[in-house]
Amino acid sequence: MQPTASHFVNGAYVEDKNGPLIPVTFPGTGEEIARVHEATPAIVDAAIASAKAAQSAWAALMPVERGRVLRRAADLIRARNQELSELETLDTGKPIQETLVADATSAADALEYFGGLAATLTGDHIPLGGDWAYTMRIPLGVCVGIGAWNYPTQIAAWKAAPALACGNTMVFKPSEQTPLCALKLAEILIEAGAPPGVFNVIQGAGSVGKALVEDRRIAKVSLTGSAPTGKKVYAAAASQMKHVTMELGGKSPLIIFDDADVDSAVSAAINANFYSSGQICSNGTRVFVQSGIKDAFLDRLIARTSKAVIGDPRDPATNFGPMISEEQLSITCSYIEKGKAEGATLAYGGQRLGADGHFIEPAIFSDVTDDMSIAREEIFGPVLSLFDFETEEEVIKRANATDLGLSGAVFTADLTRAHRIVAAIEAGTCWINQYNLTPVEMPFGGSKASGIGRENSKAAIESYSEIKTIYVGMSPVDAAF
Ligand code: NDP
Q: In this structure, are residues 158 and 129 in contact, taking their beta carbons and an 8 Å threshold?
């Protein structure tokens, strides 16, 4: 698993052992599987310089050629899905059952989609009665991508694909906890024909991210991370008027009415809380169930959750793996203790499992009230909070009583009500009778403190390009004097 070197700059692996060592551990056992070094100021500078040097020639290519590179990369990723999924599992601890279908494949979808869009990014002709104007859609320049640890391949590709399609270049910093996967994307883009410098990866903690954000050569920053980090990065970017995309945390509501298909709603609650061991930003961690079906729902949820196959994420039978780190596990455990201390009922699970690896059982709390810590704060672990409600008006008010607004969902057989509810939920992405599906064709992102801008879909083009307007005078110019 040891990469050739820590960083990928200007089309090749590079090392600088002066940077502090970052041990990479497999969350399933806690064993060290690789070592990388944090980027030194010299590596940060080299990465930005190479992205800057590559940008104008990349932007000047025929857009269809840029698109072809991205589509070739998508094909290479699909052909190597097994090996890339195994790496993702080692880097993150997510079950191979998940990574085979949700990570490299999602990266390939993004590269294919934006590869296809590259040649369609045109401007407008604006008639002005004799004179006229036209617009050009132009790249921003060098973009910085900063990733969280839960989806390292997907996050890198969701940022790189639209950025590169628009003619930008990128320096990407993965989370220091999952440094391996983005390096593979850099390798594959070169193999697909991307010129050196178009996509660079450098390692490091928040301080390296900060150095990138503050560099004057950077035009745009796209961060996937927590809301507190988002506020810091947004402020630093704003001080130099940089463009930003902020994909931040959530505390999203999943609202289930008593006319819903209960088994389907239970499946959604499981996916919305326990997929990737609960480490998903858009999770529906506040599950509101209408009082008529609350007991039946809870019984069914517990029966189904008790069937989770918890174990080595490399085993194809495992469907619930470890958490990323001891730190994230202990944050989750402390919320479980708070939940109990504040009066919620731990109806299922929540026990730490074994000493090796960072395993915990999925936890289900019932009797949760809106003021409890587990109801208000993002945990980013497998902790589901169940609430009951009586009326539509009541549940909308309670669902929106948070500063965060990433996602939300409703389960009901009444489609008129479903559309009314999603219209009222203050969130960037909502689902009706489904949860957490985020195909590249649809915009994804947060409202309120959950973020700014959208990833995926045509909407992402707005986040990686800007419009330049040109007025064309067709007659002699008049002046007052
Ligand atoms: P963090 O906010 O801790 O870190 C995110 C990234 O930002 C990391 O690479 C981190 O480096 C880096 N970073 C930290 N401080 C700074 C800084 N001052 N300047 C620049 N970069 C900095 O998030 P986690 O990695 O813990 O990920 C979990 C969070 O991400 C959750 O809140 C989750 O909801 C959110 N998330 C949001 C998603 C979305 O699409 N909306 C998707 C996935 C996760 P390092 O950690 O290496 O020190």
A: no
pLDDT at 355: 84
Is residue 455 flagged as an active site residue? yes
The reported pLDDT for the residue numbered 199 is 99
Question: Ligand 1: which of 218, 223, 226 to mutate, judged by most atoms within 8 Å of the beta carbon?
Answer: 226
Low-confidence residues of the chain: pLDDT under 50: none
**Which residues contact ligand 1 via a Cβ below 6 A?**
146-150, 173, 175-176, 205-206, 209-210, 213, 223-226, 229, 232-233, 247-250, 281, 378, 380, 406, 446, 451
Q: How far apart are the CA of 403 and the centre of ligand 1, in A?
A: 18
How do beta strands 359-360 and 352-353 pair? antiparallel
The 10s digit of each residue's pLDDT in 329-345 is 999 999 999 999 999 99
Query: Are the C-beta atoms of 393 and 415 separated by less than 8 Å?
Result: no
pLDDT of the residue at 1? 87
Active site residue 392: no
Cα separation, 99 vs 87, whole angstroms = 9
Q: Decide if 256 contacts 288 (C-beta within 8 A).
A: yes
DSSP secondary structure letters along 13-36: EE--TTSPEEEEE-TTT--EEEEE
pLDDT in the model for residue 81: 98
The tens digit of pLDDT for each residue in 189-215 reads 999 999 999 999 999 999 999 999 999
Does this model's pTM top 0.70? My answer is yes
Ligand 1: nearest atom to the Cα of 204: 47
- Selected catalytic residue, list 52, 159, 173, 242: 159
Nearest residue by C-alpha to atom 31 in ligand 1? 226
Question: Quick check: 260 and 228 in contact, CB under 8 A?
Answer: no
Nearest Cα to Cα of residue 55 among 219, 240, 238, 286 = 219
